[in-house]
Design a protein that fits this description.
elongated; mainly alpha; 117 residues; 2 strands
């Protein structure tokens, strides 16, 4: 986390130095409107808009993966509990004790189409 903060600070400092060094006025026309400003500021604004677009596009996939990971973690916990119960049952059977039959847990259904975008 500290490394990311340091990298972010370095990029910010480099961006400010870049904006201050590129003060040539440029005009940007978008659809019917136009904007005039220093080259460095215009490029930084384009960088920010691009970052926002990337964030908006990648958020749904990230949320889906996090949801899937959470559910898979729950399933792993269930399977570990079942495994421990089976090991205990095996130990009891090896000692010759009488044990009740276990009801099988339903098989885990992995539907690959739900995992993809």
């Amino acid at each position: 986390m500290q490394l990311l903060t340091l990298v972010g600070m370095l990029i910010t400092i480099a961006s400010v130095v870049f904006a201050m060094a590129n003060t040539t006025e440029v005009t940007v026309t978008i659809m019917n409107g136009s904007f005039t400003g220093p080259l460095g500021v215009v490029l930084l604004m384009a960088l920010v808009v691009g970052g926002l677009i990337v964030a908006l596009v990648s958020t749904p996939g990230t949320l889906r993966r996090q949801w899937r990971i959470k559910h898979l973690d729950k399933r792993v916990a269930e399977l570990e509990k079942t495994c421990a119960a089976q090991k205990d049952r095996i130990e009891r059977l090896e000692r010759g004790e009488s044990v009740a039959e276990l009801t099988p847990t339903p098989a885990f259904d992995v539907n690959a189409s739900r995992l993809m975008f």
